[in-house]
Amino acid sequence: MNAAPSPESGEPDSASQLAAEQDPDLRASLAGLSQLAAGQVPLPQALTHVAKFAVSAIVGADGAGLTLLQDGVPQTVVTTAEFVRQVEDIQYGLSEGPCVTAAEDRRTVLSGSLDGDRRWPRFGPRVAKLRVHSALSFPLLVGDETVAAVNIYARAKDAFDERAVQLAELFAGPAAASVHDARALLEARTLAAQLQSALKGRAVIDQAIGILMSRSGCAEEEAFDRLRATSRSRSLPVPFIAQQIVTDAVHRARTRPTQGG
């Protein structure tokens, strides 16, 4: 079956809204996505949850994979079943398949007979050997960015129809928001850790400079130059050298005999 384009606005039409209202599995999956966004779940777990919700939302699905993208390049792949992992390995090894097409074209892609689908002449026959014949793939869009792509697979032929496409596109909006929020949370935590590490490194360097100044009577600038020279000669970072100086000074202070002892 040919690809079904998703609405550019990202807003479901009335038929799609009605489909969601009549589908308890989709409602449950959307509710799960809502809780996911509110809970600040770490990125790997968030991706896995979104993939599992996708399987629950689409009737006939046997498994799903979700690929996190960075500038269009696959970064992280999570799957709900081992056979999906095998399919995704084939797809990204070949750089050919429904998820690749969905991400590149920013539209929903549907196939009910992968073995004979001319769009992916190398991918289709290989996954058919795994008894996987149907795929429904769609991008997760946030503005102009494709943050991820979802692949839903079934072993049966023609497992997904136009109603499945409608449900997938309804699912895509909240799923994109959940993935975007989880990625933003990870980036914020990573930045905070980097800043904390930088502040700690600066504090150790300042301590080492003070120790060198007290030992030799040199100026602050000269002490820092000595640190950098040692760093270059030993091919080690300045904070590492500084930490060694501080550790050595602490050790000397603790082992120094006390007066009158």
Task: Indicate the topology.
Layout: H1 14-21, H2 24-38, H3 43-57, E1 63-70, E2 73-79, H4 82-94, H5 98-105, E3 109-111, H6 123-128, E4 134-142, E5 145-154, H7 162-216, H8 220-234, H9 238-255
Antiparallel strand pairs: 1-2, 1-5, 3-4, 4-5
Strand order of the largest sheet: 2-1-5-4-3
Count of helix runs: 9
- Secondary-structure class: alpha+beta
Global Rg? 27 Å
Number of strands: 5
First and last CA, distance = 90 Å
Description of the molecule:
With 261 residues, the chain is an alpha+beta fold. It has nine helices and five strands. The chain has helices spanning 14-21, 24-38, 43-57, 82-94, 98-105, 123-128, 162-216, 220-234, 238-255, and strands spanning 63-70, 73-79, 109-111, 134-142, 145-154. The protein has a five-stranded antiparallel β-sheet with strand order 2-1-5-4-3, sandwiched between helices. Strand 1 (63-70) and strand 2 (73-79) form a beta hairpin. Helix 7 crosses helix 8 (220-234), helix 7 crosses helix 9 (238-255) and helix 8 (220-234) packs across helix 9 (238-255). The longest helix is centred in the last third of the chain and has 55 residues, at 162-216.
